[in-house]
Amino acid sequence: MDSKSIRYQNTRLLVDSVGGVSNFADKIGKGQSQTSQFAGTNPIKGIGNKVAREIEDAFEKPYGWLDILHTDVNELSANFNSSLSNIQDEVTNENKEFLRLINTLNLLNSNGQLSPEMIKALYAVIALGN
Questions:
Q1: Containing domain of residue 49, as a range?
Q2: Are residues 118 and 77 in the same domain?
Q3: What's the superkingdom here (predicted)?
Q4: Among 35, 62, 85, 104, which is most buried by a count of CB atoms within 10 Å?
């Protein structure tokens, strides 16, 4: 995936997180028409360096965040639940504490109490065991 596509995909994650292009435009301090040209469903312009940094600042993301591919939270959640199911199938009596921990994490996740970053980190830890 090229850098233009990565910036667009990450921008769309942010657009979705605030409820659409109009709210996104307000958050970054630009007009909706201008914003739709690079953040809408059918963009006609790419996201340049200046606008990328403005988006990162508006969303309090670190410098360069828009340039690194980020996965959708729903995809991370599905992967987490799949890993959870695999672990539960292998649990023995000796691992009941571990299972209780995993169930607690799953409950927190389903209630939206885990951030996308935390879900990604937990998924990475679980993947290490596979």
A1: 3-67
A2: yes
A3: Bacteria
A4: 35
Which sign, positive or negative, has the C-alpha torsion 45, 46, 49, 51?
Answer: positive
Helix, coil or strand: residue 119:
helix
- The residues near 40 (Cβ < 8 Å, ≥ 6 apart) are 21
Total-model pTM: 0.57
What is the tens place of the pLDDT at every residue in 83-130? 666 655 665 656 677 767 777 777 776 777 778 788 777 777 777 765
The residue length of the chain stands at: 130
Strand blocks (E) in the chain: none
Alpha-carbon span 88 to 103, nearest angstrom? 9
